[in-house]
Amino acid sequence: MASSQNASDTGSAAPAVRKRSRFQVLTLTEAAAERLREILDNTDREVAAVRLGVKKGGCAGMEYTMEYAETIAPGEDVVEDKGVKLIVDPKAVLFLLGTEMDYQVGKMSSGFVFNNPNQTSACGCGESVEIAPASPEALAQAGL
User: Fold this and answer.
1) Which segments in the chain show pLDDT lower than 50?
2) Beta-carbon contacts of residue 126 (< 8 Å; ≥ 6 apart)
3) Of 16, 58, 114, 144, which alpha carbon lies 20 to 30 A from 9's?
4) What pLDDT score does 75 carry?
5) CB burial class (10 A; 0-12, 13-18, 19+) of residue 78?
6) CA 111 to CA 104: how far, in whole Å?
């Protein structure tokens, strides 16, 4: 990934957006990247990226979240993969580490699918999941 600039490089006292060079929190399949590009290209808003996160909810305990991000806040992790810029909510990094984001189209539905090694279970409807934070071994392997 790109390196971060510090305040002395820019002449500004504003903190830099954190960009990781040693690991990438998540990756995209070609299908996910293509669908995200379509979504971003068809919005009427000025959008810097798509923000991903997790929140408490559903019968299994957590849900994945996606929203347009008009700005990138200091301290947010930025992932650039296959020409798409994603922002990972800092509170979600440990839950999303190692995840592959895919987009699948079926006869009855289509949507983003998160192949997450930290997911321990999912509800029957597929709307919520149980996710454990990444293990110390996974953190060490990622260089954290």
Assistant:
1) 1-15, 17-21
2) none
3) 144
4) 82
5) buried
6) 6
Residue 122: both structure tokens together: 């999912």
What integer pLDDT is reported at residue 37 of this predicted model? 96
Strand partners, 100: 27, 115
Tokens of 71: 């700005």
- The correct CATH number of 25-142 out of 2.40.128.100, 2.70.70.10, 1.10.3720.10, 2.60.300.12 is 2.60.300.12
DSSP 8-state symbol, 143: T
Q: Which two tokens stand for residue 70?
A: 């008009």
Global model pTM greater than 0.90: no
- Ordered by start, the domain boundaries in the chain are 25-142
- For the chain, the residue count is 144
